[in-house]
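Re: Re: ligand-bound prediction request (bumping)

Still looking for help on this. To restate: I need the protein modeled with uridine-5'-diphosphate bound, output as structure tokens. Inputs repeated here so nobody has to scroll up.
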Amino acid sequence: MQLVEVQKKNFDDYRQFIDEETEFELDFLVQKLKDKKIAMINATAFGGGVAEKLHSLVPLMKAMGINIDWWTILGHEEFYNITKNFHNCLQGQEGVLPVSDVETYLKYNQMNASYMKDWEYDYIIIHDPQPAALIESRRKKKYEKWIWRCHIDTSSPNKEYWDFLYNYIVQYDAVIFTMHDYAKEGIEPGNITIITPSIDPLSIKNIPLKKEEAEAIICKFGVDTNRPLISQVSRFDPWKDPLGVIDAYKIVKKDFPSVQLALVGSMAYDDPEGWDYLYSTLRRAGEDYDIKVVTNFNGISDLEVNAFQTASDIILQKSLREGFGLTVAESLWKGTPVIGGNVGGIKLQIEDGVTGYMVNTVEECAEKILTLLRNPVLAEEMKEAAREKVRKEFLVTKNIQVYLRLFYNLGFTAKNPAPW
Ligand code: UDP
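Reply:
Sorry for the wait, this slipped through. Here it is.
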């Protein structure tokens, strides 16, 4: 397993985003937990939403005085291919679970668990299915509290895959889901905590950029900043529906010929399927030079994502399934209206008609894009509501508060309840 180096942060910089009551509670919880050691474990340090969240959560908790480390498990392509399939099947894809996949999955979990021999952590938080079986291979010590954090939409999973994972999930002291809909039967309700993910308002991806600065950045990718731009920022993945985005754009283009589309996507190392899907996307885009497909392999990094989210007229997140959809909160925080698929965590974030729209089909998506392009005043009015929604519910300070509460509460029993 590999220890992830994180950037240093200063908690004082974040006090501007929290009220007095929250500040008081955070100080209290840090005091109570200051002698505890915490480990976060996930599959990758770069690419995708989980890594993104941990890059802000972990250094900020450290800055508050929490003793926390972040580890990533070691794996090879054969493991990531299998866990990618796990991910898809847990989100509902059909298919049977081959015995050889189970063996490979467990082999890597056992191998990674062997790195934990001399570990002395009080709280071990496992993110997503890839490292979920570590709990069994490790043989949990008595003082350890294990928490499984599920970032995906498990509301209607493939039963065979869920049943397999369930064997491990029930061994955990607590399970975190993003929404109640994702919490499955069979897990003790008392062990379930709901935590929505969050964004870091001071990260390069989310710091305020002036419109001109943002435009200067996206110009470099061939965008004409004098014409309207719609963008989707996400991995090339069937659930993110980049092909549906292109189809919606093509409908809009007929009525609004000046429109441009940017598909901004990161290629994650644990996502071999992403390359195939990028090629399908490029084929669907064809010879239309107003469609820009750009990735981390040709210059997209956090600042560029920020620039696209800031300078676009509309952000799309036309997902067909979505655990949460950090890109939605990121874009709303910049005051850009978002048109999102009417699924999963997107439903928690977009207030239909107030901060953007939720859509079920390509046609509906095209219709809402046209509504916003034709009514810039409406788009402008959505700006404040969008920012306020994120400030109240989806900033990292809120996320830390709920995590620390959970750690603290795990030290209590029914006879000795927590004061919250
Ligand atoms: N992202 C990025 N560069 C890209 C595309 C995406 O940094 O080219 C980031 C995006 O800004 C967001 C994360 O990757 O922070 C994706 O998280 P989300 O929850 O939207 O989706 P996931 O990839 O976890 O399914």
